[in-house]
C-alpha cells in the first residue's frame, strides 16, 4: 500500500519567522504519517526554522532544490550532504520553474536525484508538459521521456522509494486544474513507464503526485484516482488552514 503524500511547495515565499508561525499553527493537527505524509518544502533560507519548529511533529521537511555535488566551488548552490546533516527528508528536483528560469536539464535532474540518494534524501522528481505540447497531443510521450531521463541509472529499490510529481505547466498557479481524469491518465502513463523500465513491483511502489492548482476543494477527487498518490501544492499550501484541509482530506 502506498502512503499518500501531500507536500506544500512554498516556492520563494515566507521568511523564517513566518515559517515558525506556520508550523506552530499546524503541527498538532497533522495526520499520522503512516496515514498521510504531510510535507513542507521551504526555501533554503527557511530550512533551519522549519526543522526547529517541526521537530517531534508529524511534519516532514523538504528543500526545493539541491546541487548534484556535495561541496566545492559552486557559489550560491545548496549541498545535498548538508541538507541530510540538517535532517531534511525530501528534496524537490526538476520543478518546471527551475527548468524554465534556471535552465535545469533532464541530465541535471538525473544527477541531482543520484546525489540526493547518495546522501540518503528522497527526491521528489517533477515532470509535466506545456499547453502547446498538450494541444499537439505530445503529453504522454513527453512526460514519459522526462521520467526515463530522470531515472536513468537509478536502482529499482531507489525508484520504489522516490516520489514523482506530475505537474502540467499550464495548470501551475493559473487556477486551471487538470481534470481528475486528465491527471489520472498521465499518472498512469508514468506508472507504466516505471513498469517498463523496472518491473511491476517497482511501479506499484513508486508514489506519484499531481500538482497544479490543487486546493481543498479538489483534493479529494484527485486523490480518489487509482494512480494519484498525493499532491504537490503551491499557493494553497501557504495558509495553515488550507494546508490542514489538504493533508486531512480523508477526514
Ligand atoms: O508548482 C506547483 C507545486 O510545485 C503548483 O503550484 P500551484 O498549486 O500554486 O498551482
Q: What does this 3D model show about the protein?
A:
By secondary structure, the protein is an alpha/beta fold. It has one domain (5-247): Alpha-Beta Barrel (TIM Barrel). Helices cover 42% and strands 16% of the residues. It has twelve helices and eight strands. Strands 1-2-3-4-5-6-7-8 form an eight-stranded parallel barrel, surrounded by five helices. The longest helix has 18 residues, at 180-197. The protein is globular. The chain binds 1,3-dihydroxyacetonephosphate.
Layout of SSEs?
Elements: E1 5-9, H1 16-26, E2 37-42, H2 47-54, E3 59-63, H3 80-86, E4 90-93, H4 96-101, H5 106-118, E5 122-127, H6 131-135, H7 139-151, H8 156-161, E6 163-166, H9 180-197, H10 200-205, E7 207-211, H11 219-223, E8 230-233, H12 240-247
Parallel strand pairs: 1-2, 1-8, 2-3, 3-4, 4-5, 5-6, 6-7, 7-8
Helix pairs in contact: 1-2, 1-12, 5-7, 7-9
Residues 9, 95, 167, 172-173, 211-214, 232-236 line the site of 1,3-dihydroxyacetonephosphate.
